[in-house]
Amino acid sequence: MSVADTLAEDMIAGGDPSWLLRETGYELLRESTFETRFALSNGFLGVRGGLASHLGACRAVPPRIYVAGLFDTPTPDSVVPELVPAPDWTQVRILLPDGPLMRCPDRSSRALTLDMRRGALFMEARQTCNAPLDVCLRSLRLVSLHARAIGMQVIELRIESGVSDLTFEAAFGPTDFELAPERAELDLKAWRTWRSGRSLAIAAAASLEVDGIERQPVMRGDLTWNWSWTAQPGQIVTFRRIIAVTRHHATDVHAGARARKELAAARTLGWRGILARHEAAWAERWRCSDIRVTGDAAAQAALRFAIYHLNGAANPEDPHVSVAARALTGDDYRGHVFWDTEIFLVPFYALTWPEAARTLLMYRFRTLDAARAKAAQMGCRGALYAWESADSGSEVTPAQTVGPDRKILDVLCGSQEQHISADVAYAVWQYWQATEDEAFLQEAGAEIILETARFWTWRAAPEADGRRHIRTVIGPDEYHEGVDDNAFTNGMARWTIARGLDVAALVQARWPETWARLARSLDLGEPELAHWREAAEAIATGFDPATGLFEQFAGFSALETVDLNAYAGRSVPMDVVLGRERTQRAQVIKQADVVALLALLPEAFPGASGGTNFDHYEPRCGHGSSLSRAMHGLAAARLGRAEAALSYFRRSAAIDLADTHVAIGGGIHVAALGGVWMIAILGFAGLSLRADGLAFDPCLPADWQSLDFRVRWRGRDLAVAIDGTTRVLRVALDRGAPMTVFAGGAAFVIAMDRPLTVEGVGG
User: Fold this and answer.
1) What is the pLDDT of residue 12?
2) What pLDDT does residue 127 have?
3) In a domain, 510, yes or no
4) Cα–Cα distance between 341 and 333 in angstroms, integer?
5) How many folded domains does the chain comprise?
6) Which has more confidence, 150 or 79?
7) b/e for 105-141, b at 16 or more Cβ within 10 A?
């Protein structure tokens, strides 16, 4: 049985729809949406997928192929690096004597199916309209999660009627002059980037069988194959191609040898072995990260889609790269890394795939010197991370952009959106809380937190009023630039300094030799730590005890109030509706700002002030960012407002799953997908990390009959089940030493032979 047959049986003949994403028909205007939604990735290789992209004659633009870390500046005078598209290794042409075979396929027969459980993309189409041959075409595509250098493609043609000469051509697409060729042989090509000196090598093998008998190509070239024969009714034609890709951070004469070695290992396995190991790798990822919801099929499908893309976005083997804002699924934001990774993605990885979380944070450690250099340019000590980061960690935010009115606008985020340094520290601490990875803390994590705490101590300048102020910043609400004492920035800065003091005390107590090394290399001693304590206490918060409100930034409450309900149904962001100048003078928020602080640091909101701030700022938010609704959903769930949180959950999922967001063609919104997971687990399940265990405070939506999931905590595997109908929480320890779980206001010790059942939770 062919691979196409195997997958067709499982995916089309009764497959569980919650594991499948399927589109039928073909619409040219929606093709970029399909290419994003059906993208494949393993954290190293990314391939956009679409209905037409499987049929070379039908596509106007080849699908984008990405290799993580392959950055270059597009022109000699450019200073902003971009992720360079790699050659299209999926390209084929199937030709009749008078033109392409599939020039007139039956549009209604076209179906694209993404099997998220297996990480495989399957397409089928038929040609029946006045052509010499009636043909059914099926194809499979994957990028291996087991061996990330490997990609595989299988195409099957069934000749149903007709006789004709047929030619099958397999080649590699052009690189749009973005890569300089360095080496070309029958089974291998190598390139380098024009300016950054990165090396890329691809080795490939291809075969074609007719009725199970392999045919030799009539023509060979550099990574090209050409077969010709006379097609007869009943023939089954199977084409298989395996590719191996290697990337190197400098021009490398051994790049080709490494690609060939990877390819040889894959060919030894064969396509069935490649598929089996790939499926096993995905099965393990799903074992650790799947979420099961009963009572809400749409939520189940949304969670599976989110987790599929999250699992495909990271590569725990490569600390030279991180997850970009669109992962490896599109060109938006040039492949740059933002705060999205640390705030919206690391929670998922830390609790389901800590090896991936560690690698993402090691990327930040590897770029720590660049963060130090940026802080020094401001006259500060410590580390200020780049708002947009590529491979080196240097600031790569573009200096200017084109606004909606086609005017050139200065981009100030690179210099003013500084909360990124607190966001990185937050992720490091969250990873430490989830894993207690002592080696990481000693080797990298402590230094990151200490250097970011040092930065905020220098950045928060003391003034005559006795407080420390952080002036001229941009908070998450990017509609307002150059503001003073942004509540999110100041709150996260205070938190970071406090964690710096905690880390210093912890390392001194547990690993005095490590502390001696850090103190010496960082020139950090007790006098400076005392200075940190004073700074953390003195940073202005903007909190008004009389109202219970945090002012978003100094002067925000004096700005014009705008009723956003009057603009319901708009299709563009509020800064386009009102104009940039009026928006800056108004209480119109781009995305969660104070609400984001509430979601991340609920303990910073005394008494009932959490709900007070949510109620105040929610109606002022225009949700001009894909990140915004997830933060609102998490905050709402933690406040016990499950139905409001569910609304935000659905709208966050819809960004990529529904055709409601104009930017989906540029890649998936991976942070919004991370936010979907956060709402479900940190929100509805009420999971929170404590120094001494895990805590649960469930609050399920009314339609969710149950929620089941797994998490990893400090070397332990836990299975969690929440019954929304009976309000029962069950926690089982499948692996690891006994631990403490908090639920219903009480502490419980669980062990592998002693699971926990708590009644009356989630009210």
Assistant:
1) 44
2) 79
3) yes
4) 14
5) 2
6) 150
7) beeebbbbbbbbbbbbbbbbbbbeeebbbbbbbbbbb
Rounded to whole angstroms, the Cα distance separating 335 from 575 reads 25
Same domain, 324 and 456: yes
CA dihedral 172, 174, 179, 183 (to 10 degrees): 40
Q: Are 710 and 690 in contact (CB under 8 A)?
A: no
Closest C-alpha to 330, from 760, 670, 666: 666
Tokens of 141: 């595509």
Handedness of CA 220, 221, 224, 229 (dihedral sign): negative
Q: Using CA atoms in the order 279, 283, 285, 286, what is the torsion angle rounded to 10 degrees?
A: 130
Token code pair at residue 58:
């039908």
35 part of the active site: no
pLDDT band at 109 (very low <50, low <70, confident <90, very high): confident
Our CA dihedral for 286, 291, 295, 299, rounded to 10 degrees, sits at: -90
**Alpha-carbon gap, residue 390 to 371, rounded angstroms:** 13
Query: Within a domain: residue 739?
Result: no
Q: Which of 13-22, 158-167, 437-446 has the lowest mean pLDDT?
A: 13-22
pLDDT the model gives residue 8: 52
Residue 735 inside a domain? The answer is: no
* Domain range enclosing 517: 290-684
Distances (CA, A) of 101 to 61, 104, 158, 396, 409: 18, 8, 13, 45, 49
Pairing of strands 693-696, 739-743: parallel
Closest CA to 186 of 149, 224, 226: 224
SS (H, E, C) 422-450: HHHHHHHHHHHHHHCCHHHHHHHHHHHHH
Are residues 362 and 279 part of one domain? no
Residue 59 pLDDT more than 60?
A: no
Domain membership of residue 139 (yes or no) is: yes
Residue-wise pLDDT tens digits, 321-342: 999 999 999 999 999 999 999 9
Contact 468, 460 (CB under 8 A): yes
pLDDT tens digits along 15-43: 688 899 998 887 777 788 889 999 999 99
Residue 340 counted as an annotated binding residue: yes
Closest CA to 524 of 440, 447, 445, 412: 447
* Rounded Cα distance, 736 and 733, in Å: 7
Q: According to the model, what pLDDT value does residue 102 have? A: 74
739 sits in which H/E element = strand 739-743
CA 103: distance to chain centroid?
36
Alpha carbon distance 672, 631 (integer Å): 9
Name which of 50, 119, 114, 123 is nearest 88 in CA terms. 50
The model's pTM is 0.96
Residue type for position 414: G
Predicted pLDDT of residue 176: 60
Residue 128 banded pLDDT, cuts 50, 70, 90: low
Q: Report the share of the chain in percent with pLDDT over 70.
A: 93
Residues in the chain: 763
369 and 509 in a common domain? yes
Question: C-alpha distances in angstroms, 61 versus 241, 545, 730?
Answer: 21, 58, 51
The CATH number of residue 312's host domain is 1.50.10.10
- Of residues 591 and 5, which shows the higher confidence score? 591
| Residues 348 and 266 occupy one common structural domain | no
Is residue 67 domain-shared with residue 163, that is, in the same domain?
A: yes
Query: 339: annotated binding-site residue?
Result: yes
SS3 303: helix
* Pair (220, 356) in one structural domain: no
| Average pLDDT over every residue of 92-108 | 79
Catalytic-role residue among 31, 395, 478, 551: 478
CATH number of the structural domain spanning residue 199:
2.70.98.40
Phi/psi zone of residue 214: left (φ > 0), alpha (ψ -120 to 50 degrees), beta? beta
Average pLDDT rounded to a whole number, residues 160-175: 91
CA 326, CA 664: separation in Å to the nearest integer?
Answer: 9
Confidence category of residue 9, pLDDT binned at 50, 70, 90:
low
Q: Which two tokens stand for residue 461?
A: 């300048």
For 689-721, write each residue's pLDDT tens digit: 999 999 999 999 999 999 999 999 999 999 999
